[in-house]
Amino acid sequence: MKRIAQALSAIALxxxxxxxxxxxxxxxxxxxAQQWMLAATVLWFVTAPIxxxxxxx
Amino acid sequence: MAxxxxxxxxxxxxxxxxxxxxxxxxxxxxxxxxxxxxxxTEIMIGPLFLAAGVSAFxxxxxxxxxxxxxxxxxxxxxxxxxxxxxxTMYYQLEKICGRKLVSAYxxxxxxxxxxxxxxxxTVSATAWGVFFKFxxxxxxxxxxxxxxxxxxxxxxxxxxSVVAAYxxxxxxxxxxxxxxxxxLMFLAFGIIGLRxxxxxxxxxxxxxxxxxxxxGGEPLAGRVKFTFWHVVFFAxxxxxxxxxxxxxxxxxxxxKKPWYALSSAAGMYLGHFMAWIAASILYAVQLKHDPSNxxxxxxxxxxxxxxxxxxxxxxxxxxxxxxxxxxxxGLAFQSLHPAWSRFKVxxxxxxxxxxxxxxxxxxxxxxxFVALWGMILMPMGAVIxxxxxxxxxxxxxxxxxxxxxxxxxxxxxxAWLASIAVGTWLVLRGGVQIYFVSLPCWFVTVLVYIGLSAxxxxxxxxxxTSPELNK
Lengths: 57, 471
What we know:
The complex is a heterodimer of chains A (57) and B (471). By secondary structure, chain A is mostly helical.
């Protein structure tokens, strides 16, 4: 479960920064890029709490 | 700009040195600094540089140098004392200055944290304006501009306050999860903004940066013109209360090695370099589309670039940094009266912060406020620095209040007041801008503290017969 969540989180981070890069390279229009970013954001906040530790100093 | 740290290590080993078993490695600090300095207020600060008419070279060069100076300040001012004494800033200050003076410091610190939390509430409240078409503050506004704005701020502030009072730990945990995503969102702002500004090849970056984004020239109405030196000093001093002001003694006392403070570079170059540049580009995009729209409103700025994800970034960045800031303000005020409930104190502080957030003057003048914060709180860091390194070499006693049982060490108190008085005079009468004034004030504090310590300690020791205290 933890491994799957980590993999999905990695995809989420790629999905956050990938669309802006594709928009920069004229491979994606801005509206579509924004939709992908929103989907990636949801995926991140669903999966990250499953595996990220809360370290206290 | 930093919120308070999100993990509240101050609550551990409050009145004793951190033991060996509790020391932390480098990795903890990289994450902590990076999370702490990518805050909601970065979206506000970046555009204000552009409003100040800064040029590309002055902005980017100034940020590189200024942030380096900040990292070096953490490394060579704060960390060496933190890793030797391993005490919280408050306890170290109490030993030097006495309990009453620390209470005064806490009051001022709590007040500044409250106002900063208000700025973070303002930042998040601008997100409402995307969906509800009420009038939001312009760059030059000092008073609320509409009933809708007041309602948006109050709703946001009350929500933040209740959550901070009830669920500090939940939000702190959420902030940890959000940190990597927030960093990438700021990067996304920059990438999308650059494309919107006409950049198609990375090789043309400097051309676009200097001719389209940070063109230099006159600042917007009512703004001070920013040069290279303004940017250097702002970047260096915006966290002055933390490094030269020594507030981060409380954090770095857990570091195994003093050089771990170099990890502050993660916070500086992600938050105070990349994020400021990205936010500044978003503002340039807005001005390109409508030169008359000079309002600095993080919600609409982020929404235009990244849609709903951008809006979420503004709300989450503001929320996750307002939360520990309100908590820290609550702790500072609660220390004045330990019997008060932390819950109630945090709630009241949150409501006060919400009221200050209604007035956009602080947020629209955030650069000045941050510089003022440094000027007011820095002197106590200078006192700690001198007390730790200089006084023993002059044959004077460190931790004088503790040694003599005094509730106020007037050498420290007078040095603090003298520094603020000189700084205020220099700004109001001396023609020195507030961004630079903390540098001469540091020397004023050092000289006054050494001089008065020599006088007060000399007089006191002459009246004592105890051989122990004359060691």
